[in-house]
From TrEMBL:
Residue stretches spanning the membrane: 21-43, 55-72, 84-101, 229-247, 253-275, 287-305, 311-331, 352-372, 378-397
Cell compartment(s), UniProt: Cell membrane
Predominant location: membrane
PANTHER family: INTEGRAL MEMBRANE EFFLUX PROTEIN-RELATED (PTHR23513), MAJOR FACILITATOR SUPERFAMILY ASSOCIATED DOMAIN-CONTAINING PROTEIN (PTHR23513:SF6)
UniProt-recorded name of the protein: MFS transporter
Positions of the Major facilitator superfamily (MFS) profile domain: 172-419
Species assigned in the record: Tenggerimyces flavus
Length: 419
């Protein structure tokens, strides 16, 4: 299978610049915002769980109607507006701290509103990429974007930990906001003619139901969304427990926690960068199954972690293996989804996909806070770590391992239901 390079497309390079800035800032905030709650605002485990719930609850509540909006509107203006809105909201959090109004309740509101815009941005971005590059460049484009996102995790989480350590968490969160501003500028320079086919008399809820129906009936999307939902539920439970356990029980510094995440991101970067080459040699479906198996099973190694001396080594190993497996898997899973879903339905079908899969995140965060409070953070961490490998079962017993190439899926993709 020959991979056609995406770098030659000027619009793709501009999209890449915007995505890179957005991801880099967001990765700083991914670590800085929870640490701001734990260190600056003295949040309890339950309050940290609620904060994470607010960060992802919009994926459960707003994804479906926003997916219909994405199908009905031009994507580029939606992405620019979402970036500018997130710049204002996330940038407002450190301002609240500095003026003495930084209460957790207000942080919840700002984070929830910013997450609504993140849902809009991500749905638009998924539907926008196939319009920016040709189908021949899609796999390489996804590979480059996923690798860059992993590189942002490498620099972002590591820098986030250092910024919290050196300048305090509010300054680190401010860097998060600036990334969205840079992204808005880069995307505004993309020159593409987006033509939207208007459908008169179409019910929003009918289109929402159509997206859900395709996700649940398609033989490729159904196992992918099931795996993603299982992973997100248990990983978020694991993450809430880990953050509290590392800070409060093990006494790990922000910089050390950031280092563990950074090592994991190195694995994701390597997996994403070389992922497109691996499929051509071993087959699309087999690569997906094996890499999901590696990435999802690595968390079991956390059973070995019980003191600060071994914590950083075990965490680094777990995150590296998880990153390596999911880095390769995500490149192929995303390209498979973009190929299977008809272009006119990208917004609503991806919205249904994300509502189901990312909707598990706030549930996992709430469960993590509850288990950490009622039992212990260590218990929450282990329950999540043992649940993550269950996601691979959905892929193993599906049609995906039999897929040889994305071209094969494109030719045999299931038709959307009649309108």
């Amino acid at each position: 299978m020959t991979t056609v390079r995406a770098w030659t497309d000027r619009n793709f390079r501009r999209l890449w610049v915007g995505s890179s800035a957005s991801w880099f800032g967001a990765e700083i905030g991914e670590l800085a915002i929870p640490l701001l709650a734990l260190i600056t605002l003295a949040a309890t485990p339950a309050e940290l769980g609620l904060l994470r719930t607010m960060q992802f609850l919009p994926f459960l509540l707003a994804t479906l109607p926003l997916g219909v909006l994405v199908d009905r509107c031009r994507k580029r203006p939606l992405m620019i507006g979402a970036d500018l809105g997130r710049f204002v909201l996330i940038g407002g959090i450190p301002v609240l701290i500095w003026v003495g109004a930084g209460h957790l309740e207000l942080v919840y509101v700002f984070v929830f509103a910013a997450a609504m815009l993140t849902v809009l941005y991500q749905l638009s971005d998924f539907a926008f990429l196939p319009r920016v590059v040709t189908s021949e460049r899609l796999l390489d484009a996804n590979s480059k974007l996923t690798a860059t996102q992993s590189a942002a995790e490498i620099g972002g989480k590591g820098l986030g930990g250092l910024l919290v350590q050196a300048l305090t968490a509010p300054f680190a969160v401010l860097f998060n906001a600036v990334g969205y501003l840079v992204s808005a500028f880069a995307i505004s320079r993309i020159d593409i003619d987006e033509r939207i086919e208007r459908k008169a008399g179409r019910s929003v809820w009918r289109e929402v139901a159509e997206g859900l129906r395709i996700v649940l009936r398609n033989k490729y999307l159904r196992p992918l969304v099931s795996e993603s939902t299982t992973y997100n539920l248990f990983f978020e439970l694991f993450l809430v427990g880990l953050m509290v356990f590392a800070v409060r029980d093990l006494g790990m510094s922000a910089a050390l926690i950031g280092l563990a995440f950074t090592i994991g991101a190195v694995g994701t970067f390597l997996g994403a960068w070389f992922g497109a080459r691996v499929a051509g040699r071993f087959g699309y479906g087999r690569v997906l199954l094996v890499t999901f198996l590696v990435g999802n099973s690595a968390s079991v190694l956390l059973l070995l972690m019980n003191d600060k001396g071994t914590a950083i080594l075990i965490l680094a190993s777990v995150f590296f293996l998880m990153g390596l497996g999911t880095g390769i898997a995500n490149v192929h899973a995303t390209s498979l989804r973009q190929t299977v879903i008809p272009s006119a339905l990208h917004g609503r079908v991806n919205a249904a996909y994300r509502m189901v899969s990312w909707g598990a995140v706030p549930i996992g965060a709430s469960l993590g806070g509850l288990i950490a409070t009622q039992f212990s953070p260590h218990t929450a961490m282990l329950v999540g770590a043992l649940g993550i490998p269950l996601g691979t079962v959905w892929i193993a017993f599906s049609a995906i391992p039999k897929v040889r190439s994305i071209a094969e899926v494109q030719l045999g993709a299931e038709s959307p239901p009649e309108r």
